[in-house]
């Protein structure tokens, strides 16, 4: 923490009207401020004080509860005051201005949590989970964010780092005895310890991968010729009417997006405008957006009309899809063709090859048959294994760090006892990667990026 940390203030509750509004302050020695603000009362730590909040002239701006948390037993580790007033925008603004008048400055997004991190109240993975908990888009995501916040993820990392430090001490110690270093490492079973460490890391990586799926979800695009049923499928998946469905080809002029939740996993679905050549200006814009959506997608649902099959038009569409996208071929309108959904899931070995799809699913967007199969396949394709006990929310940043550590441990194993100095160096780099997750030795600019994405008041 810098020597001088000014008092910060923010409205912590959501903007707009509400029964209660909360203003939060953090800084050094806030008792004096609390006394002035309450018109001379002295709040006791962790006790609610019912009081007027008064202006410069001693007139009440509002009344409500004042909560005082004395440093270091507070969220930020500094003195914290929370004012619970009436949640009207004008009252909240007046209270906020009063706090500014008393010397506080407006908090930046995430600044409270950043101070908590800098004062060692939370590590970086925990701090990130504060934002994830607030942003959680499903109950599972919220549960898992809370687990991370409580330190479940960090605990795994600490365990790994502890084992790694033990191994490093062993290896570094042998560097001083070049004569008998290999015997020494053999006797201490350094090889076995490294193998065990790599196994443990694999386990954490697998869990974190699941956690990242739950946090980031999956981007799905619907592609297919006009009238094949893209809007209908989007509506069927979303469970209500958001796209315009008509019999006129080209009605879906704009991309229409919808977020659904499958087994807790957020799925962002974008309906494209058909991706075809057109002179219509409005439609052109839609088509451009569709191409953008494709660039960000993980999975493409390629819709096919069974009466036409995989025709030239659809093949042309397929050629515009980035090749790294996973594809599911969806034969729609099976209700018109007396097809059955349950026998219709085919594997790549069968007929999928032509479109390059991973799977073929046949369904009826209109009647719902086969929809469940499609949902199942979507979760399958992304590798979601279902929420399990102890799972925690993770970010791409965490996965990158874990993969870096994994790579370094691999390198360490390759060197074995051939070159102890390189072995030591790879172990050191592995630890550095793991430490990035919890925020030990994290670059300042990374901290800036992480905390700037918070909302104000957190
Ligand atoms: P889009 O242009 O690809 O978005 O296609 P729409 O979703 O607008 O659907 C075009 C037409 O096909 C509409 O009349 C839909 O009611 C109809 N349709 C869509 N899905 C099905 C289906 O599964 N069965 C039947 N019978 N009709 C469907
Ligand atoms: Zn090497």
Automatic annotation (TrEMBL):
Keyword Magnesium (UniProt): yes
EC number: 3.6.-.-
Gene3D superfamilies tied to this protein: P-loop containing nucleotide triphosphate hydrolases, Probable tRNA modification gtpase trme, domain 1, tRNA modification GTPase MnmE domain 2
Residues that coordinate or bind K(+): 227, 246, 248, 251
Boundaries of every TrmE-type G domain copy: 217-383
GO molecular function, one term: GTP binding
Subcellular location(s) of the protein: Cytoplasm
Binding residues annotated for (6S)-5-formyl-5,6,7,8-tetrahydrofolate, in chain numbering: 24, 82, 121, 458
Cofactor names: K(+)
Binding site for GTP: 227-232, 246-252, 271-274
GO biological process, one term: tRNA wobble uridine modification
Major localisation: cytoplasm
Keyword Transcription: no
Family, as annotated: Belongs to the TRAFAC class TrmE-Era-EngA-EngB-Septin-like GTPase superfamily. TrmE GTPase family.
Subunit structure, as described in the record: Homodimer. Heterotetramer of two MnmE and two MnmG subunits.
Protein name as annotated: tRNA modification GTPase MnmE
Organism, as annotated: Pelistega ratti
Name of the gene encoding the protein in the UniProt record: mnmE
């Amino acid at each position: 923490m810098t020597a001088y940390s000014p008092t910060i203030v923010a409205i912590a509750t959501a903007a707009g009207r509400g029964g209660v509004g909360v203003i939060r302050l953090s800084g050094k020695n806030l008792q004096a401020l609390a006394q002035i603000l309450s018109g001379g009362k002295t709040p006791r730590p962790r006790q609610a004080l019912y009081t007027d909040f008064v202006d410069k002239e001693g007139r009440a701006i509002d009344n409500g509860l004042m909560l005082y948390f004395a440093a270091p037993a507070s969220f930020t580790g500094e003195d914290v005051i929370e004012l619970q007033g009436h949640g009207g925008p004008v009252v909240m603004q007046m209270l906020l201005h009063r706090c500014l008048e008393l010397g506080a400055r407006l908090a930046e997004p995430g600044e409270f949590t950043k101070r908590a991190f800098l004062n060692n109240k939370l590590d970086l993975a925990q701090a990130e989970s504060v934002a994830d908990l607030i942003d959680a888009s499903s109950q599972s995501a919220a549960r898992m964010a809370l687990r991370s916040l409580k330190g479940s993820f960090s605990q795994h990392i600490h365990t790994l780092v502890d084992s790694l430090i033990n191994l490093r001490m062993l290896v570094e110690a042998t560097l001083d005895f070049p004569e008998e270093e290999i015997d020494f490492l053999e006797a201490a079973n350094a090889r076995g310890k490294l193998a065990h460490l790599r196994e443990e890391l694999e386990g954490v990586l697998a869990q974190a991968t699941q956690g990242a799926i739950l946090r980031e979800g999956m981007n799905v695009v619907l592609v297919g010729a006009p009238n094949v049923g893209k809007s209908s499928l989007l509506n069927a998946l979303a469970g209500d009417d958001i796209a315009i469905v008509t019999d006129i080809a080209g009605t879906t002029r704009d991309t229409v997006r919808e977020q659904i939740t499958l087994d807790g996993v957020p799925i962002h679905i974008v309906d494209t405008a058909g991706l075809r050549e057109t002179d219509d200006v409005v439609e052109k814009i839609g088509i451009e957006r569709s191409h953008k959506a494709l660039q960000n997608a993980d999975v493409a649902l390629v819709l096919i009309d069974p009466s036409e099959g995989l025709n030239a038009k659809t093949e042309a569409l397929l050629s515009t899809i980035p090749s790294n996208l996973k594809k599911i071929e969806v034969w729609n309108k099976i209700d018109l063709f007396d097809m059955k959904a349950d026998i219709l899931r085919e594997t790549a070995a069968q007929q999928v090859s032509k479109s390059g799809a991973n799977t073929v699913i046949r369904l009826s967007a209109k009647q719902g048959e086969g929809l469940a199969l499609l949902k199942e396949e979507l979760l399958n394709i992304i590798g979601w294994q279902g929420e399990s006990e102890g799972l925690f929310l993770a970010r791409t940043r965490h996965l990158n760090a874990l993969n870096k550590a994994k790579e370094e441990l691999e390198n360490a194993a390759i060197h074995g006892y051939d070159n102890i100095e390189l072995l030591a160096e790879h172990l050191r780099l592995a630890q550095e990667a793991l430490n990035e997750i919890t925020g030990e030795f994290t670059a300042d600019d990374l901290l800036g990026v992480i905390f700037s994405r918070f909302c104000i008041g957190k």
